[in-house]
Design a protein that fits this description.
This protein is of the alpha/beta class. Strands 1-2-3-4 form a four-stranded parallel beta sheet, sandwiched between helices. The mean pLDDT is 94. The chain contains eleven helices and four strands; from the N terminus they run H-E-H-E-H-H-H-H-H-H-E-H-E-H-H. The chain is globular, with a radius of gyration of 18 Å.
Length: 209
């Protein structure tokens, strides 16, 4: 990600991220904050908050139980690929508001997952998260301005993660969205797009110092 930002030019750049992309973006903001002008996060907590919740919050551990299932070798790939990706499609339908994903959209996801090695690559994120803990960052405070947009009906991530994540940001705005879940950008596309455009095109935030 650092190389991508550098390739875009020397100025800091805005970053918008969701799910695993959000985890990468949080880490980027901790490791090289000078490369990020603004950070918009959709439904993913600060990594330190998530780690703490997995240790001490029984509800979040229950929500994250599927990560343990993904640790098994080859079996998760076989289950997700079976019957033309039926289980993969079911995950999207089960974790989103009814009607969020059209059949044609899920066909494209299933086709992408059917590429040889794709499912193992996807699941490698979950496997590495438990087997290869990341290094401790120099600080837990996120210094670029942050806007957190969070669908409150997220089945995988508790809304109790929002406030602790915000507490680790120097400048932060919270936008919880009722009636939307983990796929908030698909369930409320116009509202999320408006929140992102408003954030990304606002006047630069200048430090008092």
């Amino acid at each position: 990600m650092r190389a991508l930002l550098d390739d875009l030019g020397p100025a800091p750049h805005p970053v918008v991220a969701h799910d695993w992309g959000g985890a990468v973006a949080w880490w980027a903001a901790l490791l090289f904050p000078e490369r990020i002008s603004r950070l918009a996060i959709l439904n993913v907590p600060h990594p330190a908050v998530f780690r703490r919740a997995l240790r001490h919050d029984p509800d979040q551990r229950r929500r994250s139980r599927y990560i343990l299932d993904f640790q098994l070798p080859w079996l998760p790939e076989r289950r997700l690929a079976a019957a033309g990706g039926r289980a993969l499609r079911a995950i999207f339908r089960r974790t989103s508001r009814p009607g969020t994903f059209a059949d044609a959209e899920l066909d494209r996801y299933a086709a992408a997952a059917a590429v040889p090695g794709a499912l193992s690559g996807m699941l490698a994120w979950y496997r590495a998260a438990l087997r290869r803990p990341p290094p401790r960052p120099p600080t837990l405070e996120v210094t670029p301005p942050v806007r957190i947009v969070w669908g409150l009906d997220d089945r995988a991530l508790s809304p109790r993660l929002i406030e602790p994540s915000a507490a680790l940001c120097r400048t932060v705005e919270l936008f919880p969205i009722e009636g939307a879940g983990h796929w908030v950008q698909h369930e409320e596309p116009a509202r999320v797009a408006g929140l992102l455009l408003d954030f990304l095109t606002a006047e630069p935030i200048r430090s008092a110092g």
